[in-house]
Predict the structure.
Amino acid sequence: MTQRQVTVEAEVGLHARPAATFVQTAAKAPLDITIAKGSGKPVNAKSILSVLSLDVRKGDIVVIAAEGDGADEILDRLAEIASAP
Amino acid sequence: MMTVMAPVTGTAVDLDAVPDPVFSKGLVGPGMAVEPERTAGRAVSPITGTIVKLHPHAFVVVGDDGRGVLVHLGIDTVQLRGEGFETLAAEGDRVGAGQPVVAWDPARVAAGGRSPVCAVVALDAPAEAVTTLARGPVRAGDGLFRWAWAP
C-alpha cells in the first residue's frame, strides 16, 4: 500500500470545488483509492458522498492510499489537490 | 427509482443555471436547482433517509438504499459561517421527505450579494440517471427530479 499524508489548506476544507476535483481525479484512475481523516476509517476516494461525509476541514490531516501500478503518480496528484490552498 | 423533492418553494431551473461551476458543470453530480422565493422559510429534506452531514448552508441526506442527495443553500454561503441559518435537525437524525432541516432567509442571502439558489445534487450518480420532473414554479415537497438506480 502506497500512501500520502497531507494537511488540507483550502479555506473551505475538502468540500465544494476541492472535493469535486479530488473525487473526479480519483475516479479516473484504474485503482482502488481510499482517503481517511487522520487515523479514521478509510473511505472510497472515488465517492463524492464518502468524501463530503468525511467533513475534512482546513488544517485537518488526510491519508490517501492506493495500491498497484501508477499508485505513486495518482497519489501525488491527489495529494497536490488535497493540499492546495 | 427515487423521486427527489424540491427543498424550497421557488422556481425550478437546470443545474447549469447555477452561478457556480462546481454545480453548473456537474462536478459534484447531476441534479436540479431551485431559485427560492425571497421570503424567510425552511428548507426540507428532498428524500426520506438519514442526515449524514449537516452544515447551516448545506446538508446531505442518504436514503435507505445508500444513495445520497446534497442540498446546498445558496452560492458561497459557507462564507456566512451559519449567520442567518438555523439548523432544525441534527446529524444522524432520520428525516422524512418534506421534513424541515434548515430555517433561512433567501432574501437576506441575496441582500448580502450572494445568490440564494439551491442546488439539489444526486451524489455519485451518472448524469443519465437523473430525469427532470419540474421546471418553473415549484413548492417545497414537489417532485424535482427522478433518480434511476444505477449501481
In short: Chain B touches chain A through 14 residues (CB under 8 Å). The mean pLDDT of chain B is 96. Chain B has one domain: 2-147.
